[in-house]
């Protein structure tokens, strides 16, 4: 009888198994590191799209309100309206007396004043946007409230901040999740 060769057995060496497991571990690590950044980027893109919607609604507001507010044709207010899921008509609800609330109700929610209307002006993380309408320069800092869209009348964007400009112009500013502050204006 012939003697069996010990080296002719088929199988993987321990080094080959460890190498395959290490490569698989690296692939999983890259996916778990890259996935949250990708999701954050997608949410920030949705926020930029929401700000473009605010920008378009402000232009529509200017068109509909020509000759008002000292010729600026923009909503004026210095109070913050914090977004809520449902709200009543501004004639009966004292919480919707600011121009920011009325602007969201009449321009961001398809122009309906129905008291049962749901506020669809919502951040991708599920929180409803609030709004602050003011005038002049504005620079976002870490002490500002989250989920508040800042509209500055008489301003234009200069990078991530709003600087003073003519009364007919405006800037819309919002803090993004992953990339600082986003500023969009009508110019």
Protein model, in words:
The chain is of the alpha+beta class and 187 residues long. It has one domain (14-185). It has two helices and eight strands. The chain has helices at 14-64, 99-108; strands spanning 80-81, 130-135, 138-139, 148-153, 155-158, 161-164, 170-175, 181-185. A five-stranded mixed β-sheet has the order 1-2-4-7-8. A three-stranded antiparallel β-sheet has the order 3-6-5, with no helix packed on it. Strand 7 (170-175) and strand 8 form a beta hairpin. The longest helix has 51 residues, at 14-64. It starts with 13 loop residues before the first helix and ends with a strand.
> Describe the biggest sheet?
5 strands, mixed
Describe the strand arrangement of the main beta sheet, using strand numbers.
1-2-4-7-8
Tertiary shape: elongated
Could you name the ranges where pLDDT drops below 50 across 5 or more consecutive residues?
86-92
Find the count of extended strands (DSSP E, 2+ residues).
Answer: 8
| Overall average residue pLDDT | 78
Radius of gyration: 27 Å
**Structural class, please?**
alpha+beta
Number of domains: 1
Helix fraction, binned, reads 25-40%
- End-to-end distance: 93 Å
N to C succession of SSEs: HEHEEEEEEE
Describe the structure in brief.
By secondary structure, the chain is α+β, with helices and mostly antiparallel strands. It is 33% helix and 19% strand.
Task: Break the fold down into its secondary structure elements and pairings.
Layout: H1 14-64, E1 80-81, H2 99-108, E2 130-135, E3 138-139, E4 148-153, E5 155-158, E6 161-164, E7 170-175, E8 181-185
Parallel strand pairs: 2-4
Antiparallel strand pairs: 1-2, 3-6, 4-7, 5-6, 7-8
């Amino acid at each position: 009888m012939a003697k069996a060769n010990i080296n002719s057995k088929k199988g993987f060496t321990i080094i080959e198994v460890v190498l395959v497991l290490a490569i698989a571990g690296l692939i999983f690590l890259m996916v778990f590191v890259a996935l949250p950044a990708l999701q954050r980027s997608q949410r920030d893109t949705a926020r930029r799209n929401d700000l473009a919607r605010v920008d378009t609604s402000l232009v529509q507001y200017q068109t509909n309100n020509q000759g008002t507010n000292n010729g600026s044709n923009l909503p004026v207010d210095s109070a913050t309206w914090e977004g809520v899921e449902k709200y009543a008509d501004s004639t009966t609800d004292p919480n919707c007396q600011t121009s920011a609330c009325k602007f969201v109700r009449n321009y961001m929610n398809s122009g309906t004043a129905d008291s049962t209307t749901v506020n669809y002006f919502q951040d991708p993380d599920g929180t409803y946007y609030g709004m602050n309408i003011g005038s002049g320069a504005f620079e976002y800092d870490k002490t500002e409230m989250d989920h508040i869209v800042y509209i500055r009348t008489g301003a234009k964007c200069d990078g991530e901040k709003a600087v003073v400009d003519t009364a007919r112009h405006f800037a819309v500013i919002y803090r993004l999740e992953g990339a600082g502050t986003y500023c969009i204006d009508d110019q």
